[in-house]
Amino acid sequence: MRIPRNVVERVRDTSDILSIVQDYVRLKKAGSNYLGLCPFHREKTPSFNVSPANGFFKCFGCGKGGDTITFVMEIERLEFVDAIRWLADRAGIEIPKTEEGKKAYDKRESVYEALRFASEYYVGKLNDPASGAQAREYLLGRALTEKTISRFSVGYAPDSWDGLIKAAEKAHIKLETLKKAGLVIERQDGKGYYDRFRERIMFPIQSHVGKFVGFGGRLLADNPKAPKYLNSPETEVYHKSTVLYGLFQSKRMARQEASILLVEGYTDVLALDQAGIGSAACCGTALTLQQVGLLGRYAKEIRLLYDADRAGAAATERAIDVVLQGGVAASVVSLPEGEDPDSFVREKGADAFRLHLKTATKDWVDAFFLASLSDNGFGTLHKKRQAISKVAQRIAYMKDDILRKMYVQKASQLFAISERDMAYEITRQASSNQAQQQPSQTLREENASAAPVNFDAISESEKTLLQLMLEEGAPMIKYILGNMAYDEFQEGPSQRLVDLLIETHEAHGDEVQSAFRSGKANADEITQQLIVDILMPRHEISKGWGAKKINVPRLNEKSKRIAEDCMMRVKGAVVKREIQRVRHEMMNAPEGSEDRGRLQKKYLNQKRYLLRINNRKLFED
Ligand SMILES: [Zn+2]
User: Fold this and answer.
1) How far is ligand 1, taken at its centre, from the CA of residue 59, in Å?
2) Which of 280, 379, 390, 407 lies at 20 to 30 Å from 86 by C-alpha?
3) How far, in Å, is the centroid of ligand 1 from the Cα of 63?
4) Helix axes 341-348, 266-274, angle to 10 degrees
C-alpha cells in the first residue's frame, strides 16, 4: 500500500535519528556527532557515526549509511513502506487507511495488530470488575502497584473458550490472523478454534522496541492438569531466542547504569521495575547469543540474578558462558537460599534489595570458584582440574588483553596454580572455543545485506564542490554550476547528484537545502549514500584542505574561495587529461599534415585554458 507523500515527509521530519539509533547502539558524543560500535558489522573500535544535525548515520568500517528510514530498514529488516509505518507508529503519526489499503495491509503488520488487540482485550478483562476481580486480587496481593501493572500491560484471559475469538470477530480481525499470532488453537475435530489462553494472568511479551509479539500466561487458580505457565508458540513475529521480556521497559535504565539484571520470571521483572531497577528475562528458553547481543547494545555488564535453587544455579552457569561468549561482562548476584528476586523485594523492600545488590554482586570468576567448592573443597583433584578448564575456557572468550591478564592473575590465585599454567590452559581452550564459535559469528554479518558503494574514485575537490552546493544551497549551486560544465563532474553518482541538485533547485528554489535535509529531494539509493558520504565529518572542509596546505579560511567566511579552488582542481584535472590525449594524437599524426596542424592548435588552446584556470581568470560571480 502506498503511503501518502506528506505522511512520509512528516515521519521523516519528526523522527529523531539520535533517539532511534540509541535504541540499538550505545553512543558517545564526539564533537557535534555521536560515535558507537556499528550494529551492522563486528568491530572493536567504534566507527559508526550519527550526525543529528544532518539526520544521517554512517559507518566508516562497513560503509553503511543513510537517514533514519534507511537505518530502520536495515536494523529491523523492513521494506521502505514498513519502515515508514514503524516510524509513524513510534511517533504516534496516524497513517490514513483506505478500504483498499486495509486489504493490502502487510500480513506481518496484521499479526502485530492482532497481538495488540489481544493485549488490549486482556487488559480490559483485568480491569472489568466482574471478570477481573480475582486476578487483580492476586496481582495486588503480590504487592504490584496499578502503575506497574499498566506499565507492563498486564491483563487477564478469562475462563472462556472463545472470549477473544468473539471480541476479535467484532473488530474484524480474521481467525486466520489470530491463528498466525498464536492466540487460538484449532479444535481436534477440525471444526473451528478455541482461545489458547484461558483463566490466566497475561504478561504480554514486547520486543525491545515495544511491539507486542507474544504472551506468557500464568494460571490463576491451582489446576494440576494445566501447566502453571503457558507461553505463545513461535510465530512469524515471535522468536523466543531473540526477545527478552522487560527489556523494552528497562532499556533506558540499562543504558544509564551500563548494566542490567537478568532474572528468571515475569513477576521478578515487574517487582524490580517497581523498585526502580531494570531487568529482563528470557521467555521459556535458555539465554542465547542473540539475546546477549541485544542486551549488549544497552549494557556493558549483565548481572545474573536467578532463583536461589539448583535449577537457578545451573542456569546461571550456562548463562555465564553465553554472556562472556557474547563479549559482555558477567557478574552473579546471589540470593538467600530459596528466595527469588520477587519474593526478596516484596519481603525486604526496595532499599534493602539495592543494598543487597551492592554487597552480593560477585564477579563471575569468584562466583564460579565458590560454586565449584563443596563442603570438602573441590572433593577430588580431578574435579578441580575440570573447574580450571572451565575457567580457562571462559577467560579465552575475552578479547581485551588487559582484562584477560587480570583474569589470569585472579584465577591462578583462586585455584592455586601458576599464572603460566593458567595462561597455557587458556591458549589451549581458545583454539577449541574458536572451533565451536564459528557458526554464531555469522549472525550479525548476515545483516550486512546491500553492498555499500565506495566513492573513493570521486576526487576530494569534486566532493567538496558537491558538499558546498548541498550545504550552502541556492547561491552556491548557481555559482558553481554557472562555472562548471556538466561533463566536468564524474560520470555516475556524481553527475546524478548534480542532476538532483538542479532538479531540486528548480522545484524548491531557495529552499533547496531544507528540501535535501528533509528528504524531499528524490535521491535514489546510491545518490543518497553519496550525499551521506559527502556530508559526514570525514570531509570537513577546513580540516582536509588545511592539511593540503591550501590556504583556505573557514567555510562560512570564504566558501566561494574554496569553491574556486575546487573548480580549479576539477577543471585542471579534466584539462590535463585532455592535453595529454591531444599531445599523444599530435605526435602520431604525420609531420606537416593538416591533422597535425589542427591538433597543435587545439593543444595550445588547452594549454592557455589551463593557465586561465590556474590564474582563476575563469570564474564569474
Ligand atoms: Zn559498520
Assistant:
1) 5
2) 280
3) 6
4) 30
Report the alpha-carbon distance of residue 362 to residue 343 in Å, rounded: 21
pLDDT tens, residue by residue, 315-359: 999 999 999 998 899 999 998 888 889 999 999 999 999 999 999
pLDDT exceeds 50 at position 369: yes
Q: Would you say 320 and 390 are in contact if contact means Cβ atoms under 8 Å apart?
A: no
Which of 201, 290, 212 shows the shortest CA–CA distance to 245? Answer: 212
CA of 72 to the centre of ligand 1 (A): 15
Q: How far is the CA of 1 from the centre of ligand 1 (A)?
A: 31
Q: How many angstroms does the Cα of residue 498 sit away from the middle of ligand 1? A: 28
pLDDT in tens, 590-614: 888 888 888 888 888 888 888 888 7
Determine the distance separating the centroid of ligand 1 and the alpha carbon of 514, expressed in angstroms.
28
229 contacts 284 by C-beta, under 8 angstroms: yes
For 35, the 3-state DSSP assignment is strand
pTM of the model: 0.60
For cell 534507511, the residue is 70
Residue 51 main-chain phi, psi, to 5 deg:
-115, 100
Query: Would you report the helix, strand and coil content of the chain in percent, each value rounded to 5?
Result: 55, 10, 30
Segment holding 179, helix H or strand E = helix 175-180
Q: Is the dihedral of CA 221, 225, 227, 231 positive or negative?
A: negative
Q: Would you state the pLDDT for residue 546?
A: 40
